[in-house]
From TrEMBL:
Keywords: Oxidoreductase. This is 3alpha(Or 20beta)-hydroxysteroid dehydrogenase. GO terms for molecular function: oxidoreductase activity, acting on the CH-OH group of donors, NAD or NADP as acceptor. The keyword Oxidoreductase applies. It comes from Salipaludibacillus aurantiacus. GO terms for biological process: bile acid metabolic process. InterPro entries: NAD(P)-bd_dom_sf, Sc_DH/Rdtase_CS, SDR_fam. Pfam families: adh_short_C2. Belongs to the short-chain dehydrogenases/reductases (SDR) family.
Length: 246
């Protein structure tokens, strides 16, 4: 308890799944938390359940204006941002031959462009806080390729590279940037019916013999948000049950 006392955290995609699990653990560890999402009803419910240390704001991560407004609201509510978790993401599974430019751009705008806007928008606030931790949620799809996932793979590899570039640039400012690479996590996104054939096939190769719950990533995210990881930057932290070990 208290590992994040004094931290002000902004978590995108916080209305459900991994983002909601992060928000719950962050509050438990003493952080003041802003969660954002396009899922307004679910986001407001999470914030209400967590109580006073947590607020929800509707937020489209593909909009620079909305990013600037969210950072402003966070500062007005809790003070300068010291932790950013770029968690919002979408997946579209399609063969490359039939993948439309529209769908490719949709995945890119949320998964990659949204991460860029988040890092860019939060930096002035983090500099006020005199330190910061940016945690970009990539995927094992940012480490290895999968069929039917060209757009998703492209964005998650990009997040990995963006993380390293930002870490090198922002280190002298006292701002750390790391990426988390989850394997198959049981979330509403991975529960989509059209994804089940791919997920079931991938799950057969997990050395731990099972998929994971969102809460199993929360401790890792708390570690990266806390001062315990003060010498960690520019690194990939993999939580995949051993999928990419072989």
């Amino acid at each position: 308890m208290g590992r994040l006392t004094g931290k002000v955290a902004l978590i995108t995609g916080g209305a459900r799944g991994i983002g909601a699990a992060f928000a719950k653990e962050f509050v438990k560890e003493g952080a003041k938390v802003v969660i954002t999402d396009v899922l307004t009803d679910e986001g407001e419910k999470i914030a209400n359940d967590l109580g006073n240390p947590c607020v929800f704001f509707a937020h489209d991560v593909t909009s620079e204006n909305e990013w600037n407004e969210i950072v402003k609201k966070t500062e007005e509510t809790f003070g300068p941002v010291s932790v950013l978790v770029n968690n919002a993401g979408i997946v579209i599974q399609e063969p490359t031959e039939s993948l439309s430019a529209e769908n490719y751009e949709k995945v890119y705008k949320v998964n990659q462009f949204g991460v860029f806007l988040g890092m860019k928008s939060v930096l002035p606030s983090m500099k006020k806080a005199a330190n910061g931790s940016i945690i970009n949620i990539s995927s094992i799809s940012g480490l290895v390729g999968q069929a039917m996932s060209l757009a998703y793979n492209a964005t998650k590899f990009a997040v990995r590279g963006m993380t390293k570039s930002a870490a090198v640039e922002l280190g002298p400012e006292g701002i750390r940037v790391n990426s988390i690479h989850p394997g198959i996590i049981k979330t509403p996104m991975t529960a989509a019916e059209e994804l089940q054939p791919v997920i079931n096939e991938l799950a057969k190769g997990i050395p731990l013999g099972r998929t994971a719950m969102p809460e199993e990533l929360s401790g890792l995210c708390v570690f990266l948000a806390s001062d315990e990881s003060s010498y960690c930057t520019g690194s990939e932290f993999v939580a995949d049950g051993g999928m990419t070990a072989g």
